[in-house]
């Protein structure tokens, strides 16, 4: 076709828009979970945005990334703290706080008998405190990996979450409260995609260094921000750096949080400089799975959604890990925790349901998206986040509510956005 007739054709507009705007920046919707989930450029996704429900509630939360304290005007938190105080063993905070909260326990004298079942000292996961259950460091199902990621929501996790969706793979996401506050739409995506959300503290410090009320506040405000943003209150947590002892376990337990640890450490947090080591750690897990190590019970490995590197490692090893194990499931699924949140109506599949192909069970919850105060976006999403009472299956290609069905919706949405963009250019031209 002649150049002139090409330029005059509708097709040319598509080409021109593709050249002028490699991604549809003008069409970005950064007000809803679905809109935000379509952004694939990490620079764009990580740019701050306003989210009114969080902005309006700023005063109800401690400052981001600093050790949380109970706010002086928060009578709910104060009452709850007072109600659990009597359950906390009389164990002093460990080390000198300014240092130990950042992991330097140098100079701290600790009884070598490990009276506090301090994981950082001995990797102890079996507290002998009445009423406090053992930590979950492994899963009982044979040849099963309890699959999960710490430190999210990372602002640039869309490519990774898309990858998980394309494999219809669900995981347990251990979210940092300060990240949820900063990137609420990314946090909503976990629920929308059918993942399980657990708490990973407010500011990611070493918990055994903190006072009772600080440790309480680290967990409490993480639970509150997840409730505000996502609409659910988790019932599980993972201590940053694994730093937990009987005192911290008792506080978490009193707040209804199950402590989830790990047996294998990918050490992916070391970063790309340590890629050989991280690869070897993944290979060790894979070899162990292949040689029968988990033939009577499964395990958990520590991995992160911290950076592009940690997520890329998860992607590059996914196929090998998935074929070395019989089952990769969220930790809660491996434990049959079918009611993973305080609120009614949000369910996880049981282990039997999950391995039978049901990767998302629908919800009857009405409080998605923070109930009355927030996130109308989530309530309108097309997945298991609280819009329907019907059961759904994990076979995504033909279910109206599963996470993967959402991908096709997204394609429709982004196509629609592109069409709007093309129209816009047509108009401008
Ligand atoms: C507590 O005080 C802050 C201001 O410091 C305010 O924004 C917030 O709404 C108050 N919270 C309650 C529960 O009164
Ligand atoms: C727990 O076990 C340790 C070590 O065996 C012991 O020193 C400690 O007193 C025990 N604590 C309780 C509450 O039984
Ligand atoms: C299985 O592989 C793991 C990881 O390489 C290794 O530590 C373990 O000794 C192996 N066990 C057997 C029975 O070969
Ligand atoms: C998220 O990942 C990006 C890399 O893709 C990194 O630059 C950023 O610091 C991470 N954000 C957080 C909050 O961890
Ligand atoms: C890592 O970054 C590259 C380059 O931006 C991107 O193509 C890729 O999707 C990212 N991977 C993950 C898992 O986020
Ligand atoms: C989960 O449920 C199955 C039965 O469907 C059972 O065999 C298994 O022991 C349960 N696991 C746990 C941890 O309760
Ligand atoms: C799920 O969808 C795939 C792809 O369309 C199809 O091949 C498979 O048979 C379906 N599985 C079930 C259980 O419906
Ligand atoms: C897809 O689901 C609809 C109802 O939700 C059903 O009528 C239809 O038969 C299903 N298609 C396939 C291929 O399973
Ligand atoms: Zn962490």
From TrEMBL:
Q: Which UniProt keywords apply?
A: Carbohydrate metabolism, Cell membrane, Cell wall, Cell wall biogenesis/degradation, Chitin degradation, Cobalt, Glycoprotein, GPI-anchor, Hydrolase, Lipoprotein, Membrane, Metal-binding, Polysaccharide degradation, Secreted, Signal
Task: Give the family per the record.
Answer: Belongs to the polysaccharide deacetylase family.
The NodB homology domain sits at 143-340
Q: Which Gene3D superfamilies match?
A: Glycoside hydrolase/deacetylase (3.20.20.370)
UniProt GO cellular component terms: plasma membrane; side of membrane
Localization (cell): Cell membrane; Secreted, Cell wall
SUPFAM superfamilies recorded: Glycoside hydrolase/deacetylase (SSF88713)
> What's this protein's name?
chitin deacetylase
Q: GO MF annotations for this entry?
A: chitin deacetylase activity; metal ion binding
Q: Name one GO biological process term.
A: chitin catabolic process
Work out whether the entry's keyword set contains Signal.
Answer: yes
Give the classification, highest ranks: Eukaryota, Fungi, Dikarya, Basidiomycota, Agaricomycotina
Q: What catalytic activity is recorded?
A: [(1->4)-N-acetyl-beta-D-glucosaminyl](n) + n H2O = chitosan + n acetate
Pfam families documented for this protein: Polysacc_deac_1
- Residues spanning the signal sequence: 1-27
Q: Per the entry, which co-factors are needed?
A: Co(2+)
User: Low complexity compositional bias: what residue ranges?
Assistant: 388-403
- Could you tell me which species this protein originates from? Pisolithus microcarpus 441
Q: Which InterPro entries match?
A: Glyco_hydro/deAcase_b/a-brl, NODB_dom, Polysacc_deacetylase_ArnD
* EC number(s) on file: 3.5.1.41
Topology of the protein relative to the lipid bilayer? Lipid-anchor; GPI-anchor
Where are the stretches annotated Disordered? 366-403
């Amino acid at each position: 076709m002649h150049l002139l007739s090409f330029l005059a054709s509708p097709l040319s507009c598509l080409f021109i828009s593709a050249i002028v705007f490699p991604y549809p920046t003008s069409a970005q919707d950064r007000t809803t979970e679905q809109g935000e989930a379509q952004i694939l450029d990490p620079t764009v996704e990580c740019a701050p945005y306003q989210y009114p429900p969080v902005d309006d509630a700023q005063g109800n939360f401690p400052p981001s990334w600093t050790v949380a304290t109970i706010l002086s005007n928060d009578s709910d938190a104060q009452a709850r703290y007072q109600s659990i105080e009597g359950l906390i063993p009389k164990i002093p905070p460990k080390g000198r706080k300014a240092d130990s909260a950042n992991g330097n326990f140098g100079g701290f004298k600790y009884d070598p008998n490990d009276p506090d079942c301090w994981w950082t000292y001995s990797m102890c996961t079996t507290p002998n405190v009445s009423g406090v259950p053992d930590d979950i460091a492994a899963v009982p199902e044979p040849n099963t990996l309890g699959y999960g990621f710490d430190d999210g929501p990372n602002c640039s996790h869309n490519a990774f979450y898309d990858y998980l969706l394309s494999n219809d793979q669900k995981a347990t996401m251990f979210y940092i409260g300060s990240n949820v506050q900063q990137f609420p739409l990314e946090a909503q995506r976990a629920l929308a995609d059918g993942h399980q959300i657990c708490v990973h503290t407010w500011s990611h410090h070493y918990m055994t260094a903190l006072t009772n009320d600080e440790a309480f506040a680290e967990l409490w405000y993480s639970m509150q921000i997840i409730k505000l943003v996502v609409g659910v209150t988790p019932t599980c947590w993972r201590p940053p750096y694994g730093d937990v002892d009987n005192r911290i376990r008792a506080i978490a337990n009193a707040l209804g949080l199950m402590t989830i640890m790990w047996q294998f450490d990918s050490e992916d947090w070391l970063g790309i400089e340590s890629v050989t080591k991280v690869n070897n750690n993944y290979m060790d897990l894979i070899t162990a799975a292949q040689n029968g190590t988990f033939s009577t019970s499964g395990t958990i490995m520590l991995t992160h959604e911290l950076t592009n590197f940690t997520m890329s490692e998860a992607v590059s090893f996914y196929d090998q890990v998935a074929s070395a194990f019989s089952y990769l499931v969220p930790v809660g699924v491996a434990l049959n925790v079918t009611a993973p949140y305080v609120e009614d109506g949000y369910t996880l599949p049981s282990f039997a349901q999950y391995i039978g192909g049901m990767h998302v069970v629908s919800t009857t919850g009405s409080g998605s998206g923070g109930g009355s105060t927030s996130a109308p976006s989530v309530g309108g999403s097309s997945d298991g986040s609280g819009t329907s009472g019907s059961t759904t299956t994990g076979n995504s290609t033909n279910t109206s509510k599963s996470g993967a069905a959402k991908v096709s919706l997204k394609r429709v949405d982004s196509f629609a956005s592109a069409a709007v963009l093309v129209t816009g250019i047509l108009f401008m031209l």
